[in-house]
Amino acid sequence: MVSRATKIRLGVFLIIGAIMILLFAAAVAGNKLTQRWDTYYIMFQDYPVSGLQVGGTVNYQGIKVGQVQSIKIDPKDVSKVIISINIEPGTPIKEDTEAVLSLVGITGLKAVEIKGGTNAAKNMSPGSYIRAGSTMLDDISDRALSIAEKIDVIASNIGEITNNENQESIARILNET
Questions:
Q1: What is the helix (H) or strand (E) element at residue 25, kind and residue range?
Q2: Calpha distance 137→156 (Å, rounded)
Q3: pLDDT value at position 3?
Q4: Whole-structure pTM over 0.85, yes or no?
Q5: Phi first, then psi: what are they for 53, rounded to 5°?
Q6: CB within 8 A of 118, min separation 6: which ones?
Q7: Can you say how many angstroms the Cα of residue 70 is from the centroid of all Cα atoms in its chain?
Q8: DSSP-derived 3-state class of residue 17
């Protein structure tokens, strides 16, 4: 049988342990709840944002500086997606910075990458819109589309040159020379 003193010690131990766990949880949660953020917005027009999630990472020159707060379709123009991001206060977001979406690993998840900006540019105030930029992959896709259109024109011209009427004309010219 367990003595009364042992039960009291066990009870005190459990109460002190529970209080310590609650204090630790309050300290961790309190830090997150009281953390202040600067909110900025990014507007992407006719650009898919699939893979980007609320709570996703926001990086500035590769350094994590915040998180995605919300992703919404502009009710006035459905071709626009407005992303609000929370950035750590004091992060220098310049007027000439751009925001792009970058892949995170091979999972298809995306993060917001803020890049560019010069020391000469003014700091943006919280609540401003950061200009949406293009990634290297977007540039490559645009160039590939342009190249495909040019190849189509070249193929059409070759088809025109090699039609039956032109073949007969070329054969006549060759025979005469």
A1: helix 4-34
A2: 29
A3: 84
A4: no
A5: -130, 150
A6: 94, 96
A7: 12
A8: helix
